[in-house]
Amino acid sequence: MDHYTVIGHPVEHSRSPAMHRRFAELAGQHIKYDRTLAPLDAFVATLEAHIAAGLKGANVTVPFKEAAFAWAHRLTDRARQAGAVNTLALQPDGSWLGDNTDGVGLVTDLKRLGAPLGGARILVIGAGGATRGILGPLLAEGPSALVLCNRTLAKAQTLAELFGIEAQAMDALAGQHFDLILNASAASLTGELPAVPAGLFAGASLAYDLVYKPGGTAFERWALDNGCKASSDGLGMLVAQGAESFRLWRGVLPNWQQVLAEMKEGL
């Protein structure tokens, strides 16, 4: 069977093996998918050892996405925009294509939820690597405004300039209205809340946290308590971006919404 893996450090927490095996079952594909723990100083050596043993593709997780970006022979436009690679795919000519499926995974899940995109006012909280991977696909949907905020304004401004969008200080957002509010900061990993005004959520259609946790995140609950109409965590983004990786490797898009439903039941 064709071999695929997810490479990271740490990687034992990754849900990708179970997810991709289920994708394969539903799509009638026969693959092997496992986890690979790479030493922090040996990503390339670990990857190339697997390639020598017949690897056909890989998902790349923290902290190796930038290393994968530098290693790939060719890059998709969205990988170049993101400055990071989370999917590597062996090509017929023997070269390796680097892609970033995070942004398309997010947009796909937002559409599943009926979130406003075209013509909407969108706020993205956080200016780290996760944000860089989603800004291009969000802009492609034609929002009327895409605003970036971050605890450190200078970092938000640097990233905003790359994409031609607006950056604002968190405390300058008071009194503004957004249709869609995305939390791409690391705050939810520790149960903290971003330092944006709570009044931002009043009347917003959706608050979306890129982090996923059983029972939802503190950000989701905070948004709903302050007048947001709906909220979601990032499990759908995880599954949708994984399905896009699977499509790149196998040429077929699996039934990711069924897998998402099954994963929710198992949380």
TrEMBL record:
Keywords: Amino-acid biosynthesis, Aromatic amino acid biosynthesis, NADP, Oxidoreductase. GO terms for biological process: amino acid biosynthetic process; aromatic amino acid family biosynthetic process; chorismate biosynthetic process; shikimate metabolic process. This is Shikimate dehydrogenase (NADP(+)). The active site is at K65 (proton acceptor). It holds the Pfam family Shikimate_dh_N. One of its GO terms (cellular component) is cytosol. Residues 116-187 form the Quinate/shikimate 5-dehydrogenase/glutamyl-tRNA reductase domain. Its EC number is 1.1.1.25. InterPro entries: Aminoacid_DH-like_N_sf (IPR046346), NAD(P)-bd_dom_sf (IPR036291), SDH_C (IPR041121), Shikimate_DH (IPR011342), Shikimate_DH-bd_N (IPR013708), Shikimate_DH_fam (IPR022893), Shikm_DH/Glu-tRNA_Rdtase (IPR006151). GO terms for molecular function: NADP binding; shikimate 3-dehydrogenase (NADP+) activity. NCBIfam families: aroE, PRK00258.1-2. Homodimer. Residues 234-255 form the SDH C-terminal domain. Belongs to the shikimate dehydrogenase family. Involved in the biosynthesis of the chorismate, which leads to the biosynthesis of aromatic amino acids. Catalyzes the reversible NADPH linked reduction of 3-dehydroshikimate (DHSA) to yield shikimate (SA). It catalyses: shikimate + NADP(+) = 3-dehydroshikimate + NADPH + H(+). Pathway: Metabolic intermediate biosynthesis; chorismate biosynthesis; chorismate from D-erythrose 4-phosphate and phosphoenolpyruvate: step 4/7. Transmembrane segments: none annotated. Shikimate binds at S14, R15, S16, T61, N86, D102, Y212, Q241. It is an enzyme of class 1 (oxidoreductase). NADP(+) binds at D77, G126, A127, G128, G129, A130, N150, R151, T152, L153, A154, K155, L210, G234. Residues 6-88 form the Shikimate dehydrogenase substrate binding N-terminal domain.
